[in-house]
Amino acid sequence: MSRVVVGMSGGVDSSLAAALMSEAYSDVIGITMHLAGNSSRCCSLDDADDARKVAEQLGINFYVANYTKEFRQEVMKPFADSYLAGETPIPCIVCNKRFKFDHLLARARGLGAEKVATGHYARVAKDEESGEFRLLRALDSTKDQSYFLYNLSQDQLARIEFPLGFLTKEEVRQKARNLGLSTAEKPESQEICFVPDGDYAKVVEELEPSSLPGRGEVVSEDGTFLGSHEGIHHFTVGQRRGLGVSGSGRLYVSKLDAKLNRVVVGDGRSLEHTKVEVSNLSWVSNEGIPDTFCAEIRVRHGHDPCPAKVEVLDGVATAFLDRPVRAVAAGQAAVFYDSDTVLGGGSIKAAN
Q1: Which residue of the set 42, 43, 95, 306 is catalytic?
Q2: What confidence tens digit (pLDDT) does each residue in 175-220 have?
Q3: H-only helix segments in the chain
Q4: What does DSSP say about strands 272-283 and 341-351: parallel, antiparallel, or unpaired?
Q5: Does the active-site annotation cover 92?
């Protein structure tokens, strides 16, 4: 069979993906993309060493590609800018699109490979009737990563393989153990790779020191002054801890006003939304989508999809939810599903 490139992050998932591709293809190349610097818990030089060991075990060629400069400009800085705009960004979607696929596919083509495989938990299937490719949820719903991949194009899906899409996490680990892979027991990281300690505000301050908003007000939903804060980049919609103010009951961040550098707090009822506006739309099918359709919408990774009626007008999709959904945050992704099939998605613009 033809040559295939496997994106190897140094974890057990991509390690097994490389092993499975080695069984299916005679010519496999492993590539680790060095992205966020060696202080991160993903795509670091230490991870590259782990990936290299697996490649040696499998007897495949292996390379490290340095994309730290591009990653800073294309993922990290937009992440900081989004927080400073009062949003809750999701950099993994940009990273997957630009690096795991745009850049990696381009490099694969330069190496004479038409296919790229990764350790993502998702599935790709070709619709024989239309000839188009469909993006599907993984069989293991607890590990499914299709939410992060909604903006992949037909051309990309035609060149991608997700060999773990039919496996559970435990099956992946067991197969890795059976093959004696050195990463079989390596723990997985749950954090954003360039925020290994979970301190998002610190990263924003390091990336955009001249754009920090400074102190601002914390107010109730009726505008009553409750206290001060050190910058809206310290907060996300739905946050309860660390507000620095007290009230008669539990308070949550309900809105972030970047123009006024103001944090608005309210009780839990203020977090319930039944309408979501989605912009920067991307549809999996080249045929696009009807102006009005019904789908399930997922407003964050791990969120149970909610049925909705969707209306698309002037590049904005408005989803009318069948039930209230809690803490819908601007900047997160909204992804539309038809059963297991990803229809597309976009960035949450507003919620009411």
Answers
A1: 95
A2: 999 999 999 999 887 678 888 778 899 999 999 999 999 999 999 9
A3: 12-24, 45-58, 68-71, 77-84, 91-95, 104-110, 154-157, 169-178, 200-207
A4: antiparallel
A5: no
DSSP 146: G
Give me 45's structure tokens.
């030089």
**Cα 294 to Cα 86: distance, rounded to the nearest angstrom:** 30
Cα–Cα distance, 255 to 329 (Å, whole number): 9
pLDDT tens for 223-256 read 999 999 999 999 999 999 889 887 778 899 999 9
The Cα-based distances of 74 to 79, 185, 202 in angstroms read: 9, 32, 19
What distance in Å separates the CA atoms of residue 230 and residue 139, rounded to the nearest whole number? 44
Catalytic residue, chosen from 43, 193, 294, 306, is 193
Pairing of strands 133-137, 122-126: antiparallel
DSSP state of 269: G
Q: Is the pTM of this model over 0.85?
A: yes
Angstrom CA distances, 303 to 207, 295, 306, 333, stand at 30, 15, 9, 11
Our CA angle for 117, 332, 268, nearest 5°, is 140
Residue 67 exposure: Cα atoms within 13 Å on the Cβ side: 23
95 is catalytic: yes
248-274 confidence digits (pLDDT tens): 788 999 999 999 999 999 988 889 999
